[in-house]
Amino acid sequence: MLTDSINLSETASASLVDDPRWQLAQRIVASRCFHKSTFLINFLLYVCDRQLSGRTDEISEHQIGIQALGRPASYNPGEDNIVRNYARLLRKRLEEYFETEGSHETLRLQIPRGRYLPVFYDSAAPSAASPPNVAPIAPPNTGPIIPDASLVSGTARSRQRILIGFLLAVLVVAALTGTIVMHSAHPSVSLANRFWGTVFGNARPTLIVPADSGLGILQNLDRHPIHLSDYVSGAYLSHPEPVPGLDRRNLNDLTTQRYTSVVDLGITASLMRLPELNTDRASIRYARDLRMEDLKHSNAILLGSSHTNPWVELFQQSMNFTLEYKAEVDESVVINRHPLATEQSWYKNEWAEESRRTYAVLAMVPSLDGDGVTILVEGLNMAGTQAAGDFLLSDTAMNPILKKASRPDGSLQPFELLLETNNIGANAPQARVIAARFGSAPAVQP
């Protein structure tokens, strides 16, 4: 659902259209900093319209989510932090605008931290940090006291020169020692550091999206696949026919509650502990609460295959390794669209063997807008997803992959890995790469 805030520039009253503050908001949303993000445009125009129209009581997290970001009326800010995420991004884009295209603007606009109410101010006015008519207080002179030369005897001057020379020597040694310590305290950045800096950097939000396990259970019982279009529209929530083995009450529970796997929770917890993660820009988003606009302007880590995380469908068209699900549980396969000489065209769980082999796909692909990255962690079952997650979080396992994916300029090219592991219960030991692809899509800068 898109809202009336998209058309605010068309519906605003004459007094608002002529308001210099509203004109500033219009220039901002027309700039290069904003033109790719409908949500940021909606957000800024909505809060400015309500502020300038005297309807500040409508500037709340709940109302912004509904009116500007397309959330349903049942939207709960406690469970979905989309407004806070976009508010952080909006503040950053406003700073960028006034540093670049809007550097000439005398009228400025801010969204203060902790609030959503816009503040307009004259850039020529003195800031609170530098009050007018107050002369700065000079710091006390803390330099060495040099006595008048006429009062210093020849012997005293000699001692002084020796002392100064000694102090200079000490300073030189200290500087050299400090340089050595500084270099030893800051080792060269590893491939893994660069990789995670790419995923959690680029000044973009990063979304960690665990699977919708309830969706997977529903498909297993109903034996009908649910594709992204039905998932986004909510059409899958309407079942005219009863689902075998599931009464209406349990069906309602599966379609309304947020279920995910312990495996996904474990991977998410490990990701949130990474030192490269920026808590101001990274957030966890349940698959059912995600929107297309979120993926267009964010980096993302999607956990689970299209069976439990339909958003994966958006990226599979350009991939070589894709997971295809069958109506029968555990009959699903990994399709290898262009097998090389020693590879199979498909891979399936091997339950008859003692090893109980299973498969997973781990990939880094460009985001929907091409300016960021999306990480896919897909398993044919939970053991496969766990193996892919463990592989992703292992520097030892990832370093050879990242080395091969690195371009001469330090950027990373997209890659896809087909992993094989053994299924022991719902657990999996270390996976091994049995096939890989390294793409030639546009560079992803760390």
Task: Please provide a written account of the structure.
This protein is an alpha/beta fold and 446 residues long. It has 2 domains: 4-122, no CATH class; 192-212 and 260-438, no CATH class. It is 37% helix and 14% strand. The protein is built from 16 helices and 12 strands. A hairpin with an 8-residue loop joins strand 1 and strand 2 (119-122). Helix 3 runs antiparallel to helix 4 (38-52) and helix 4 crosses helix 6 (82-99).
Largest sheet: 7 strands, mixed
Number of distinct helices: 16
Compressed to H and E, one letter per element, the order equals: HHHHHHEEHHEHHHHEHEHEEEEEHHEE
Number of self-contained structural domains? 2
> What fraction, in percent, of the residue positions are helical?
25-40%
Morphology call: globular
Strand portion, in percent?
5-15%
The largest sheet has its strands arranged as: 4-3-5-10-9-11-12
Count of extended strands: 12
Structural class: alpha/beta
